[in-house]
Amino acid sequence: MILAHYTTDESNYNECLKRGTIVPTKEWYGKKLFAEDFLAGDHKYVFLLVNERYVALDEDGEDNSFGFILDAESLVEKNNALVGPDLLNEYRVLLNECATHTVLQSATLKNVQLLTRGILAGDTNEPGVTETVLLFRERVTELQQERRCRGEAALKLLRESTEPLELLVGGPSPAPR
Q1: Which of 89, 136, 153, 167 has its CA 20 to 30 A from that of 128?
Q2: Reported pTM
Q3: What is the tens place of the pLDDT at every residue in 108-120?
């Protein structure tokens, strides 16, 4: 089972129920999607944690979270959801490797950190950014294919893994039932 969304704002919770889809609160937008996720193409998915739960404590330390529980297996079977570990840290390592490769191939580029910062800031005019992003996108596809799965392999991973997993559901968020 998955807790797909949480909020301490009951009005947002009720809005989700009324709409039949999970919508983040306004303060949620932009907080959980990192530049690396966007570069990797993961922005087109709704991320759901398997067997994990975000907790939002109020000022008294009480858990006042509202949420939705979704059936992970059903999401794999009916929505063709991807299953695998969170790849953000691996994306960061890969981006650094790609930036290092670009710097080593260039007579003019000297600083991997400056190149990486330019990429994360979306500065396409910075020398080396385009080459590094192209290399990253090529290699990230291989990483995603190695670390994520669909269908029967995803169901098996859900049932057997003891590691934290996430489901990536394409399109609009799944409706709570």
Answers
A1: 89
A2: 0.75
A3: 999 999 999 999 8
